[in-house]
Batch of 2 targets.
Target 1
Amino acid sequence: MNKVHDVVVAESHHRRVLWHKPMALLSFVMALNVASMPLKAYLSESFPWQVAQRTNWTVFPSFEEYNSETSRILQAYYTKEYFAHKGKFYLDRSNATTLMHWSMSIPRNVSPAALASILIQLPGAFFYGDGLRNALAAFALEISLSSSSSLAKPPVVYSRCQHVRFVGLPLAEQCVWFVPDTAATIETASIQVAVYQTMLNWQNKVFLWAKLVFRLGLTAVVCRAMARQYYCHYIVLVANFLATGLRDKSIHALEIYVGDPTPVILSNTWISLAFVVDFWLSASAVGESLLAISQHEDLWAFHLAILYTSRSVWFAYFFMRLCTYAIKKYRLEESVVPLDPTMVAVASIVYTAPLMVINTTTALMHMEYALWSVAVTAEERDEAIDVLPVTAAVTIMLGALPLLFSVTVKWYRTLKVQGEHCRSITELTFDMTLVAQRRMHPGRGPPSAVLRQRTEDALDLKQRLAFKAFGLKRRFSMSGGGSIYTLHALNPAYNRMPLFNHRGSDCFVVCRSSKHHKYDCKMRLSLWRSLDLQEKNPALCLHKCTTNHLDCLSRLDATACPTFKPADSTSLCIHLGRQASPWIL
């Protein structure tokens, strides 16, 4: 059994508040995880002080001169001996260059079709543009058809380079060169070829420092948002309870189980946009990660690259937030189901990792081949690639997957419900369920059954695991809470963010009765900010009174007060508690 440490915050009229330390620690860890996301990029990226200033020196009168001079410079620095000491995959951080060294076997008299299948197996082949692919295929074919005398020492080095751009701006220079084995003879069935590849990223130290400052600022914004939009609400909860207590005056102590602040942050439009912009500004680092994913020799680099590319989950959060505006505008709330942001992050790693591996190591990379030259002029199709079209396509694809999943789940549930004899939603206790249901279907009269839902069944994955570990679900009975989810279930129009599940940010409190002197029940408190008050829809409008109530918590019901007079039995109002309490049962 987990020990709960009692920390007395204050005491008024024999009331006190205690914190469940393990849940508070878990909440802090989750908050730290979100706050550190901008700086986690440096697990793979280089810090500004690790990289030398690199300026674009590849301006030449012709592509042939560029190819010859760039190949010469890189081959002179990254020699065979240099590669031998660095392994098959190495990131030269000081020069912002990714190095790859591989061995390829080219059969004698190989067909062009067979050559194509051989070349896509090379690490880094994902980035080969039209000109680079054609040149390497010609090199390989020439080597395949060569005689033993043509492979005599000194060996011939076959090399080709290409420009890599982003939105037309220089991003990197990629060079590949083949060195065939001089020991091969005309009788040899295949020829071994040493393949060397470099991806030289252009780095501007001013830009790198600016990006670091941007990430530090984003970290500060995230921390401030968590403090102001989530954790400060616990201060209100504690102060209200100590000052006024709950409506049940026999409860003299609360034990607070702190929730997860991440749903509040992940559903923030501007924060998710900032992360998307940060990802796009790191196109060179994404390229380095894709090169690492395309090889399996350096497993540490491979797994770091997978972790880095999982940052693309922000495409999903931003896309979900954008779609929320359209869903609310066109009243499509009933077409989707809310998704747990944490599960979206887990799913992102699950589907992003295989997707990246498959795209960088199999023939599926031909889909990207078709896009590399879309943003390049016809004259430069054989000389350069622009990664903008692929970046945009990946952004849209990864961003749209959660929406597609949400719509599919809703469609499946609808079919399942239609196949049942009697439609029902799991059991929900809520004192105004009949009113809310009549507001959803006006004119139908009272429903045939009261909907009930056990709050334990509405927990997200983190809560289920934590409560099972800490015994909260097992030791205490539920006495109330989850009313806003009742309203969401009965009419999704009341959900302010229909694609985001905010259950993880709920706060659970265990109550101690002065009569029994023991903790005997628990309550679920939710932030009523996740409610859409439907202020522009008179038929569904949830009123918000301005009476200075002295209750510890806010409440949602049809009770009259000095500033709210229910027009009929279906009128609902949010009665704000003391200090405009953001918590509601």
Target 2
Amino acid sequence: EDDIWIVLILMNIYRLKSITRPDHQQLVAAKLHGVLSEFKTVTVHYAIQDAVYQGSKMRKLVAGLDMFYYRFKSSRFSVVRFGSVVSRY
């Protein structure tokens, strides 16, 4: 069994941390739960250090991952772009 759900959760926490409107944040979180239900039954706790997700190294990592899966859209792991699509560097 693949553990892509771990990367999916980390990328979606990154996405949720970048959203400022609470109503939109709840909508994206609900969609995330729908996507995650395909992989595992997990409970995601979004309380995490903001500094981890605001650093330039993290932005580079997320942007690189997003560019890779943008290029290889047919990969079965490209679902992680659900969280990385907001990356800007």
